[in-house]
Structure formats: C-alpha cells, structure tokens
Amino acid sequence: MKILLALVGVLAGGWMIVDGVHVMLRGKYIGPEKPGPWSILFVKLGVDPFRLGPLFVAFGVLWIVFR
Hints:
Blueprint: H1 2-26, H2 38-44, H3 53-65
Helix pairs in contact: 1-3
C-alpha cells in the first residue's frame, strides 16, 4: 500500500512539474485552451493563471519530496 501511495504522489507531483514547465515554455497548460475552474479565483485576484508555471513546478517538487 505504501508503494502505491508513493507512486500516486510521484505521478501527481510529476504532472504538476511537467505542466508548470509546459506553461512556462509554451504559454498554455497541457489540455484545453482555457485552464480549469481553479483559475477563476486567480483571475478575480488579478493574477494571470498562465504566469503560475513556477508555482506549479515548486508545488510539484514539494509534493514529491513530502509524499
């Protein structure tokens, strides 16, 4: 069970890293043109969701480290 949970943690963190690097390089997230519902909060706060790539990478690394 621990191995399965570790694998899920690495996959989730790895996906965040890949998606964060992708948005930094290409200017869009992997998938649909518009980010998901989470981006509405950032838009209302005046933050461009397409500028959050470094944050995604940081959270992905933290997710893997502290899984």
